[in-house]
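Hi there. Long-time user, first ticket. I'm pasting a complex I've been working with (about 729 residues overall). I'd like to know whether the download I got is complete or cut off, because the file seemed smaller than I expected. Thanks.
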Amino acid sequence: MKIFNWVTAGLAVLTLAACAPSTAPQAEGGDEKSGTLQVWLFDEPNRAPKEKVIQEAIKEFETANSGVEVEVTYIPTTPARHEKFKGAFNDPASAPDVAEYGNTDLAEYAAAGGFADLSADVSAWSEGSDISPDLLQSATVDGKLYGVPWFIGVRALYYRTDVFKELGLAPPTSIKELAAAARKVRAEKPDMYGMAVGGEYTFGALPFVWDAGGDIERLDSAESREGVRAYTDLFTDDNCPPQTCASLTGGKTVELFASGKAAMGLLGNFNRSAVDAGPAAGKYAVIPLPGAKAGSVAPAFAGGNNLGVMKSSKHRSLAVEFLQLLAGRTYQTKMYGAMGNLPTLTSARDQIAASDEFLLPFLATVSAGTKFVPIDPAWVKIDNQKVIPTMLQKIVTKQATLEEATSEAATAVNAAFGRP
Amino acid sequence: MTQVVVPAGVRHPRPRSGRARRFAPWLYLLPAAAVLLPIFGYPIYMLGLLSVFDYRQAQVSGGEPTSFIGLANYRTLLEDDKFWSILAQTVFFAAALVIATLAVGATLAVVLTRAGRWPRLLLSFAAMAAWAAPAMTGSTVWMFLFDADLGLVNQVLGIDGFNWFYDKWVTFGVVGATVVWHSFPFVMVVLYAGIQAIPPSVREAASLDGASEWQSFWQIIVPMLRPLITIVVIQSVIWDFKIFTQIYVMTNGGGIAGQNSVLNVYAYQTAFGSSEYGLGSAIGVVMTLILLVITLFYIRALYRTGERL
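Hi, the file is complete. Here it is re-exported in full:
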């Protein structure tokens, strides 16, 4: 009887081992020269102009390659995009050939083995050298290039010229001046927030941390704490009351500024159309976000989207060709015209800068030096666990002291990286 | 199986031999088991299986090999302070919800039996509408009602700009109200049907003996409805412990600094947000075990008091 039990247990273990959770088969790509090329692009809030440019590119591409059809699917930019991409990695049959993706998602997707290495294709591409090494680095994991940077987004300080003029304020040149101006606005105009800040606005807080010499991977260092303090000090009743502002996301701060409820806000070049559609239109100007030192610029986050080719693509050359068309100078320029997307090709950016003054503060921010999140799957974890928002919110709601909250966040970051 | 020989001349089917009697219930269970086992058994098996593997996105899509790590996921979980604090507040929140749902449901069930025709129809209709509203829709509508700047509640109370989702307990209160609003109709309908089934003579006798309304509720209705109450309590415990949509939607995934997170939201964020499918499954297993224990306690309590389900 005892033997019987052992045998049963053994069998059970064997069955368990044999039934390890399934893993997607490693898809073998192909290089067919005809058929349908599937393309995934992000569905922006204002898609029509983007769609028009893309249709133009498709027409050009289909004319040049007979027997090829391009089919575009617009996917959401919300966290649901992760599900779409995971689905594509898990089931190559429903995966696209070319896909647009956010550069902060890169590491996770690279670790999942979803995208093809484009290093050789880009160095052979005539326009490849027009992309700065910094930018290419933001699409590189372990020496492999998993995409071509398509456009970048940079945030700078929007402020209301009418309010500043009325109160006799000058555009701030340091964080101290910024805080003083914000408090003055709130004191004189109680219906308004001085500067719109948000407890869930990670990319609004990071420039302050970076400016102080801090870093995401060392949130409990003295420098990081100084930066966190500079940002969380703005969550007070005399600027942006925690009751309202602790739960704001970046998007909500954009709304506050666009709806005329805030005199300042850290918005991106891509938010221009939203602001121009509201009561703040025509009554604002943009300057680079000042740093702690007078006259300095706080490092901005270099966000943006890449175009990549899926590893499972059955039309590798065609996919690369279409990607190069979209990422080439002609279409980058057109996309700027349609969407305000800042080109990644240096020559295209220079050309646009000469013709559009609005871009100057953003370009000044870029040339002052930008920063990026860690290119590691850990970042997706840190982002999803809301490590930085939780830290900010605990401080501004006084659930924890700055020291406690930053130490806790640093522990969570280390855990995400798998460090002790 | 041995054939049971029925003696000639006996017309009524007699109790069969012990063995056949033991098999009969299983035979009757077979159709239900054939449907339920694959539907419930397989996911639970997979859940348990995933929880003992290092299974993240890279493993799912084949970037890295899947490895068996035994109980490491459970160890991570048990050493995680956040898990314990979320577990504690989930238990607390669920208990409060169960009590509130039962109180509201039972009160309205009694009101229904007393009310005239039109008020009864109106109340039933309102309750059915709340019951029929999808959790997502209901949560969104309640969120609009309590919006800081544009919400009806703030306008009526004249406290424009008050953020109902700032303080931890106020937030739990608003979300709890939404959950109760969604779940009281079931309790109300079940208890109302139960009360209707109590012969009027019983309550008449009670009132003739001078029992007050309150006394007759606690001494007559409650004991007679005990089996029904047990069922709605178990159902409510299970529902409220698994609460997800209302918290996820109304507090934007757990509220300020995650202060309003509950176990199910935490499991979802771990499994799908952070792509830690193995660890997320471990949370799921722990939840399943807790619910099993609760259910077992109830069944035991029932047997002890001699009640039948």
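A couple of notes from our side: Residues 88-275 of chain B form a domain with the MetI-like fold fold (CATH 1.10.3720.10). Residues 179 and 246 of chain B are 7 Å apart (CA to CA).
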